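ok so dumb question maybe but i'm new to this and my supervisor (M.) told me to 'just get the structure for TIR domain-containing protein' and walked off. so i did the thing. is this what she meant?? sequence i used:
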Amino acid sequence: FVSYSAEDDWVLDDLVPQLEGNEGIKLCIHERDFQAGRLIIDNIVESIENSRRVLIILSNNFARSEWCQFEMTLAQKHVLNRAMEPLSVVLLEDIDSENMSNSLNALLKTTTYI
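this is what came out, is it supposed to look like this??
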């Protein structure tokens, strides 16, 4: 499951083609893989629960999005419950202090990221 802001074009333009096309990794991305007609929350929960790993793409857009924050919190809960592998985190840009939530700050302090 890839948790990211739809405002970050890099994900669909570069990351998805590289990982799916060149590396053969199956990704779950919300624009393509969420089931139409279902509640967004149900799609998020089911997608995270059915994924072996969550890849979080951090950016200021991500930090400002309540949906992204919800996905991150839910993924952290699954990791703590040992229901999935540790999170993989990509930091696209430095996060501005006004966008830094306590949970995002904790994630950056406790997780190795690229």
